[in-house]
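Notes taken during the Thursday session

The instructor put the following on the board and asked us to keep it in front of us for the whole hour. The protein is Si:dkey-26c10.5. We were told not to look anything up and to reason only from what is written here. First, the residues (243 in total):
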Amino acid sequence: MELQKFEKLEVSGEHQKGEDEEKLGTVKESELLEKTESCEITAHHSKLPEEVQRGIRIYRTMSIILFVLTVILAAAVIALCARINIRSTCFKEEIQEKVCDVQLCNELYPAVSSEKKDAGCHRCGQGWLQFENWCFFLSSARESWSRSREQCRKWGADLAVIDNQRVQAFLTGKGNLVYWIGLSRSTGGEWTWINQTMLADSYWAPGANGQNCGCLMGKQLPSRSWNSAPCTHYTAYICQKVV
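Then, after some discussion, the predicted structure tokens were revealed:
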């Protein structure tokens, strides 16, 4: 009887020991799993700041590069605009200078400029030449003396009156044809300007005043560039008007 009890106790003790060992193994396994998870979490947290810092460094680098590119682009745009502005100014000045130097020889432009007196590069209008307070037009079309005067009047002008050496030298130097001027012989035989003033200073070529209407010969010596011709002859003419 006692032997059976002892055997039961021994079996029970071994069984209890097995259960304890099993529980101990389970606890150790659980602790090991917790430690493993803790290590993984710790490792994960240790890596996160480095990745964030790397991202920040990349972001800062890209921001600096973008800022530098923006500055370079802005400088390039400013330089390009300045260059375009300079070229535009020079081009306008060049065109204006060429327009001012052109001496048109047909009547179309004066007809237009008479309607717009302020058009072109000065107040005289395109095709006209300004000298002091006067505007002059040197025609290439040929008309009689009276028809030439009519044409000048259509443009708000009249045949040129040369009353000083400055105007005489200017017109002689600019013209390259023979031009009617506002000088004719009156019924009394005196040379008179169209403004009814008598001729004072004259610039006749030798023996050139035998006809009834006066004309100016371009590209001659200013002191003797006048000639005369029958008033019915067809030649170019010079119109004059106030600026």
